[in-house]
Amino acid sequence: MMKKLxxxxxxxxxxxxxxxxxxxxxxxxASAPVAASAVTAPAAEAAPAPMAAAPAAEAASAAxxxxxxPNKGDTAWMMLSTILVILMTIPGLxxxxxxxxxxxxxxSVLMQVMVTFxxxxxxxxxxxxxxxxxxxxxxxxxxxxxxxxxIWDNVAGTFANAATFSKxxxxxELVFAAFQATFxxxxxxxxxxxxxxxxxxxxxLAFMALWFTFAYLPIAHMVWFWMGPDAYASxxxxxxxxxxxxxxxxxxxxxxxxxTVVHINAAVAGLVGxxxxxxxxxxxRESFTPHSLTLxxxxxxxxxxxxxxxxxxxxxxxxxxxxLAFINTFVATxxxxxxxxxxxxxxxGKASMLGAASGAVAGLVAITPAAGNVGVGGALVxxxxxxFACLWGVNGLKKMLGMDDSLDVFGIHGVGGIVGAxxxxxxxxxxxxxxxxxxxxxxxxxxAPEAYSIAAQVWIQLKGVLxxxxxxxxxxxxxxxxxxxxxxxxxxxxxxxxxxxxxSHGETAYHK
Length: 512
What we know:
It is a single chain. Helix content is 61%, strand content 3%. It has a single domain (72-505), classed as Orthogonal Bundle (Ammonium transporter fold). The chain has helices at 2-18, 56-63, 72-100, 106-133, 173-191, 201-224, 235-243, 247-251, 259-277, 293-312, 320-348, 353-367, 376-401, 409-427, 454-486, 493-498, 500-505; strands at 152-153, 158-159, 161-163, 170-172, 438-440, 445-446. This is Ammonium transporter. It is found in: Cell membrane. Residues 1-26 form the signal peptide.
């Protein structure tokens, strides 16, 4: 089993190298690399460069300027986006997964998704938000926001604000914290599909608590934490501010809404779990067909709707980059549905409803890191390429690894996340219709088209993918082993054959 697990992780790393599109190297090797100060988040709306030399009186006046006030439109958009991500998890993901299992395990999957999400939200407000989004070191944050302390300023009598990607623009920190809580929650919920129908409910919760703490929080901090645009007040402090950011942010890795943090991170955990827990009783000999593709289609549709909050909300403002992420999420997913149907028709002779739903999720996964980082043309290509790649992932790769990934978590979220992360580096290029990346946060100016190197950015993206694979893989391996030693991972064969609805929860989804 360990040999297969190690081989599986090796295949993942090798695949990351193999899927580098030839276009990534089409850029002339002599072209200048992305500026060292380029960062991972969407660029702010175009802002005028500051005056070269402001008079002392004006500088003093600026220093005494009132603190920025959250715009009600931005705040409302972020609250709506948070609701949409909850919708895509409960009921979206729950129904998508629930329809795919056998009827005797329907409620167990719904429970695992709902309770995992709920537990992680609680852990998030206790310590998760603080460790992910406060200043610490390059790998993990600090304790300034434990139990959300400091959100209300008793002296000033106001709520604290969080930075966006535009200078002088903020949103309430409570809204930002709630939005990010939904990301943490759905990431844990995604993992349960890999070992559905055979794991103890208590083992799920114990593993999720460990994995959330030691895998999700560090990766989220490394990819997304930075000091905010207003901290880049002058060129003299720019390097110091960048040095306080998360490791992958410092490298310049682009991840708009969670290709590494959410999808690759969860998929690797699922891959490790599928190997360590073992195959379902009767796997390869008995039929494991989905019990309700109708519910799966409903779940996929809710995922698509909710994903607009997931991706477009990651702009943190109701602005042009939110609109770009919105339409990219729309068209990449539509293209992926069509591509999967074509792929199935060519390989199996017929296009299926399950295939169309899987294609939608593949497109959503792949466009996540790219949503606000590529043009619409790039989104179309990413949706198509990722759909074909994921079709191979749930068929060819799954057989190669010899694993029972029940609901193809790695085949879709892992493969799709890797493809999306790498192609983000390609189609972020202005020469391919991308918006480029911010090269200087002091003046909020973009990397010039002639200075953008596709090869350099794809290499940065690949490093981010590999760090995520290794980090999540090691943490997952240790966490599953600890849970197995203390609680035990798997239900008995008798309980598995009876179905987890009855054996784990004492109820059934359907009464005969």
